[in-house]
Amino acid sequence: MKKTFKKDERLCSVKVIEGLFDRKNSANGGVFSYPLRIVFQPLLETPSSESIATICPQKTQVLFSVPKRQFKHAVDRNLIRRRIKEAYRLNKNLLSKKYSIAFIYIGKEIEDFKAIEKGMKGAFRKMNSI
To answer: Which of 95, 111, 112, 126 gets the most CB atoms within 10 Å of its CB?
Structure first.
């Protein structure tokens, strides 16, 4: 697998994002691995109708979130977001299935790249065991 992060890997669909954060949906899973909280939903292997095929992505798509309440300056939020994206790009081959994933940064301080990468690897191990 190439270690790239292209446009089609970004989660942009409002319907998929709403479904991902829907608490009533039992297919959604959540994993906590400091400094990240990960909400994920496995993708359907074969869409049942053509309308679902346009909504559901065919490859793993991700969303990155850093809270404005915790980090007031956009420079800090962007730094953390870049570090999370890089950790995902380097370690996405550890995922065994296709998912829609939301990475939510929950740390109180700006962590270095190694701590973020360690948290992401731990989360991927937990996701694969579920």
So the answer is: 111
